[in-house]
Amino acid sequence: MLNIPNILTGFRIFLIPIFVLFYYLPVLWASAAAAFIFCLAGITDILDGYLARKLNQQTAFGAFLDPVADKIMVSVSLVMIVEHYAVIWITIPAMIMICREIIISALREWMAELGQRASVAVSWVGKIKTVAQMMALFLLIWQHSIAMERVGFAFLYIATALTLWSMVVYLKAAWPALNETS
């Protein structure tokens, strides 16, 4: 259970309160430091999955904890940018993203109970959504310039569209099981 990929995932969870603390520090470099920590967490996410496969260290604990760590970091980040910008044009995409994560997590859990977890495995749309979402959050956390924020807003809306698209892909894959009568 305790291996390099799981340690990296645990480290990512450890970074979350540090990330929040740095974001709210009353210093000029706080948002840059928070963006760096967010980026570091993203790198550990890529690295833990790669190492788990490369070193053949995939575990049930890691398979459980990795998406939990991701969802917590993303949800916390979305709440922070909603609080910072305090406008509906940021709140609605954040709401859609958080709701989608809850829906798909519940769907995956339910499909696993039916023995059909593979039918709702991560798709390429979900992976592209994640990249767009991470770029948006990184840029909106850093807030280095108006141009950077505008690019962040663009990525946020791209990620929102991909969020909805990937949710439809997952629901469509699960539809036969969802549509069964008991």
Features:
182 residues; 0% strand; mainly alpha; 6 helices
Task: Write structural notes for this entry.
- By secondary structure, the chain is mainly α.
- The chain has two domains: 1-70; 87-182.
- The chain is 82% helix and 0% strand.
- The chain has six helices and no strands.
- The chain has helices at 4-24, 30-54, 60-85, 88-113, 124-142, 146-178.
- The longest helix has 33 residues, at 146-178.
- The N and C termini lie far apart (38 Å).
- The mean pLDDT is 90.
Tell me briefly what this model is.
This protein has 182 residues and is mainly α. It has helices at 4-24, 30-54, 60-85, 88-113, 124-142, 146-178.
- How far is the first residue's CA from the last residue's CA? 38 Å
How much beta, percentage-wise?
under 5%
Number of helices: 6
Q: Report the biggest beta sheet as strand number plus sense, adding barrel if it closes.
A: none
Shape: globular
* Average predicted confidence as pLDDT: 90
Poorly predicted runs = none
Number of individual domains? 2
Q: Which sequence of SSEs, written as H and E, runs from N to C?
A: HHHHHH
Radius of gyration: 17 Å
- Please identify the structural class as seen in this structure: mainly alpha
Number of strands: 0
